[in-house]
Design brief:
Layout: H1 19-27, H2 35-45, H3 60-74
Helix pairs in contact: 2-3
Length: 88
């Protein structure tokens, strides 16, 4: 599936992240989401299963970790996540 980049959200608040996460990212000098984050985070926050593929260094780890952290912040006892990563 290809994604039309013009239709993707532009900022972390636009993709649904809470302000405390946006502030934490800003403190780490991360100002804007990468393409993989723009495509995956909104779907993950909706509770959908996501398979994402992108180059090394593109922000894949944050793409799955940020929604997990947000859900943990909302309900620390109700989050279940399974992250599968292939090896070479």
């Amino acid at each position: 599936m290809s994604i039309n980049e013009d239709s993707l959200p532009k900022t972390f608040p636009d993709i649904g992240l809470n302000q405390w996460l946006v502030d934490a990212l800003a403190a780490l000098s991360i100002k804007a989401p990468s393409e993989i984050q723009k495509a995956c985070i909104p779907e993950i926050l909706k509770g959908k299963d996501v398979i994402g593929s992108a180059k090394t260094g593109s922000g894949k780890t944050a793409a799955f970790a940020l929604p997990i952290l947000q859900k943990l912040g909302e309900d620390p006892y109700g989050v279940f996540a399974l992250v599968l990563t292939p090896t070479r």
